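Researcher: Final request for today, and then I'll write up notes for the group meeting. The sequence and the SMILES for adenosine-5'-diphosphate follow.
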Amino acid sequence: MTWDWQFAANSVPLILQGLLVTLQITVLGSLVAYTLGLVFALVRRARIPVVDQLLFLFIEFVRSTPLLVQIFVLYYVFPSAFGIRMSAFVTGVIAIGVHYACYTSEVYRAGIDAVPKGQWEAATALSLPRRRVWTSVILPQAVPRVLPALGNYTISMFKETPLLLAIGVVDLVNAAKAAGNESYRFVEVYTIAGLLFLLLSYPASLLVRRLERRVEPV
Amino acid sequence: MSNQSDPPMIRFDNVVKRFGDNTVLDGFTCRMAPGEFVTLIGPSGSGKTTILRLVMTLERVTDGLIEIDGSPLSHMHRGGKLVPADEKHLAGVRTRIGMVFQQFNLFPNMTVLRNITEAPVRVLGLTPAEADERARDLLDLVGLADKADEHPSRLSGGQQQRVAIARALAMRPDVLLLDEVTSALDPELVAGVLGLLGHIADTTDITFLCVTHEMGFARDVSDRVLMFDHGRVIEDAPPERLFTDPREERTREFLQAVVGRT
Ligand SMILES: Nc1ncnc2c1ncn2[C@@H]1O[C@H](COP(=O)(O)OP(=O)(O)O)[C@@H](O)[C@H]1O
Ligand SMILES: [Mg+2]
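Model: Predicted protein-adenosine-5'-diphosphate complex:
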């Protein structure tokens, strides 16, 4: 098998379009995972009966089943079961975002637990209202410490977007595949796709490692 | 001199506190007059911190009643009866009480100034400018006027504790609780912080409830000293009497042990 430079060059625009989709899903999925994970962590901490147990079961369920299955369920089962129909892109963002929220909630929990008890007590002694304690004292200390862990999950999400092939989202890998399909040449397109992953993942993980060194570990 | 008919600033009435089956306070009864400086001494584990934490509403009483300035703290009136206080009631009475902790517990994510202004703005409703002015006056008082914009981690333990004192004073509390506030300090920083507290006690009418192992300080500033042992007050006397002529054998032993240690 030979390397066809011309073909490789011609494929690049299509593959870059796929990269854009991958990045969009990664960013939007991260936003969902970061915010929903925090909500999960706060709700679980409030220990509201029933809600707490249900959320626990949901999180355990999501964490112990494959993402691919969840993607299928969301895309093929939800529309017929609940009448909720979403585009493949939106389904992908939600599936990945919710899946990772179940992991980030654990990260937030650890970060919140790592804030010393004395901080809560000092805030109480100053009569700060509960909400204010969270927003002024606890989260500003907990969140910086969990940023590296959140960053790592974003990198994982980035690498898992090709799973959305299953529901037809044209991400980076699927765009490469599509480009290859036209002429049955795959070496160039998959090599380019792989290089692009490496080019983005590796600096990102270096960044996370630098962040890790700067914040106190949980 | 406080009049007997004035309501005490703090009143403990038969207060019992248990953790599981560990009875930490076993019927603690005591009154503290407005402006009084009361020091609690006693061996480690005798329940001194627990008393402060009950007043600060960081713990709930198992039984008995605590009152602040004639109104219930641990309880509240509902339908003509006294029932255990709910969070709303506690939030209301808590503002009259301040506490300084052994480990300072400053907020590391805020500057010194913001540590002091946060609660006056969020709780008392001061404008940022008013809170700022109050905080700077207090920083002056504690001798840290030049540290307003530092973060706590850049300060020595003694300086951090001074900020914590300023932070508590910014709420203008009627009662200030001090829990071994110099125990975590390097020895050379202790005298300065104690001197500051003595000055504040002299120049304000705050009621102090203080746990300390600094017997010289206790003797200088206290109006009364309570000796604790196993969740009970075994001796309650003015410092000049308690330190020179303890009536109880346990007090004598304790004082000897503490003096021997320092
Ligand atoms: N949150 C808690 N849970 C269980 N036991 C506690 C708790 N806080 C204090 N205690 C117990 O109460 C007793 C008195 O503690 P404390 O009031 O801290 O004593 P002191 O301040 O006189 O050293 C100790 O036996 C301690 O173990
Ligand atoms: Mg103690």
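Model: The first strand of chain B starts at residue 10 and ends at 19. The mean pLDDT of chain B is 93.
Researcher: Thanks, that's everything.
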